[in-house]
Amino acid sequence: MTEPRPILDGLKVVDMTQYLAGPTVTRLLAEAGASVVKIEQPPYGDPTRSLAVVSDGRSGYFIQQNHGKRSLCIDFDDPRGREVLDKLIAEADVFVENYGPGVLARRGLDHDSLLAKHPRLIVATVSGFGRDSAYSEKVAFDLIAMAYSGMLHITGEPDRSPVMVGTSIADVMSGVHTVAGIGLALYHRERTGRGQHIDISMVDSMFHAHELAIQGHSITKGKWRQKRSGSKSALNSPQGIYKAPEGYIVLQVMPSQWPSICRAMGMPELEHDERFADLKGRHKNRGELNAIVEEWLATHTTDAEVLAKLEEARVPCAPVLDPADAIGHPYFESRRAIRRINDPIIGEVIIPGNPLRFSEFPFDLEQVAPLLGEHNAEVLGELGYAADTISALAEAGVLRSADR
Fold first, then answer.
1. Out of 15, 46, 171, 204, which one is annotated catalytic?
2. Is the pLDDT of residue 165 over 80?
3. Active-site annotation holds for 322
4. Example GO molecular function term (predicted)?
């Protein structure tokens, strides 16, 4: 039996992204088998090559977001470099960028200019406020999008300031939304032969995630606004984060599971207690109910003991895991959510795996992150450039490379 082909085998992608939102897009495309050429600007390339946790000159952040890509480090403001880039784009299926406002437009690399030349090209842009927007010129990073989207407003304790989320959710969510958009655009091109522009905003990506804040305000004619509720839900009970014997656990007990938690706690009489018999009562008396739950939790010795009782009764619960504890954990390992990359410079690097699962592509590709400009000669050779021309471009500083 032949090994199944990667699901995006043969798809050519030009990647003009940096930091996180854009590289998330092209990382997922590369992990699905697309040929991704990452365009990096001399002299240092993607700023994340030296960001955060670094070992022997290699950034784990860069490795995580850029494995499986080829690096072309080229000065595209030089006419000779621009000629190379134009040829590469002409052969591409997808062009992805997340540069700041106006940076590529000033160089004639905006979506309108590209689609005028290449009508089958799919151009995907990821930005804080979108390219078509009253705020398109505003500079943005993840935290800016979290604030504008309203996510910070509803996160934290009721009587304290909003709290930042511990990871860059807006960047990653907008990247995943872009991948979905590219997939739909490829399907559209298959039917019509036409490419198009996909305009993804980080603020939109986060705003789209509001499940109650907008419609709840609307249907109550403005009488209800979602507010910060801290570690316990203000809408359902028992629901939230609870102190357990060793750490913390979460519970999300919906109305159908209320009898189950009463049995799990050995308090079947609570099911019909007039304070808690229906959702309205449990909400009104949630302070009392949360205290009862936490008192019961405190009677145990280990978190595992608590979780076993709850799970036996089919009560939705989970430990609050430290992300590092996912390494070796049976769930994450069984899902290939833990991925081990063998980096040529620093050896094994463990990263989160690809969340997309395909029955026709049930394996991970062996991929590493590129050195700066590692694939200059390879990419230009595929475009028809002779070896002496490539050497001359390198000597002129149009092409750059480094050993990290």
1. 171
2. yes
3. no
4. CoA-transferase activity
